[in-house]
């Protein structure tokens, strides 16, 4: 039966988060279709082996992410995909293994191309002394990893994620902050995926870094755009 769930009784994770994750993955995979009514509260409590309190907290969590909506005499329905909060870090984590990785990364790259060059330009103008010092430390680590005899992908993913996250945090614009804080998970997944062949694009990163450190916003914008277009070439048109 569509919508059947396995019991999570005894799970070490927070029960309502675990319930929310399992329901979300059914929604994300399409097993629970958009505009469909999910199983009743009694059925779900029985399937998951949890209390009504835990289930209701899970529904509240998914409602806050735009995935569910409860209506009197109707039940709890799956909201249309257009309203799901794909910028939510938990939602990104829950998508792991469900969506086609190439397609998802390509879509995320499209978003980065639209906003990241401007973020670099803003960082060049507004980064604080402390943030520039942090960027220098991170870039030095990137150089060490790039020139090592054996490429350590895990370390590269970590420092490259820090590099891009810090740039968004250094823009001085609060609307860019989510991309530096909330999207750390997606950056890590994306960078891991695009560096699987050992590619670091260290020279492209060097141009971005140098432009930001020198306060040249135009060069920072251009360097970021060029870097992202290089990454785009790795994906089929």
UniProtKB/TrEMBL annotation:
Gene3D superfamilies documented for this protein: GntR ligand-binding domain-like, Winged helix-like DNA-binding domain superfamily/Winged helix DNA-binding domain
Domain HTH gntR-type: 13-81
Keyword DNA-binding carried by entry: yes
Entry-linked CDD domains: WHTH_GntR (cd07377)
Source species of the chain: Shewanella inventionis
InterPro entries the UniProt entry points to: GntR_C, TF_FadR/GntR_C, Tscrpt_reg_HTH_GntR, WH-like_DNA-bd_sf, WH_DNA-bd_sf
Pfam families, sorted: FCD (PF07729), GntR (PF00392)
Keywords, sorted A to Z: DNA-binding, Transcription, Transcription regulation
The protein's name in its UniProt record: GntR family transcriptional regulator
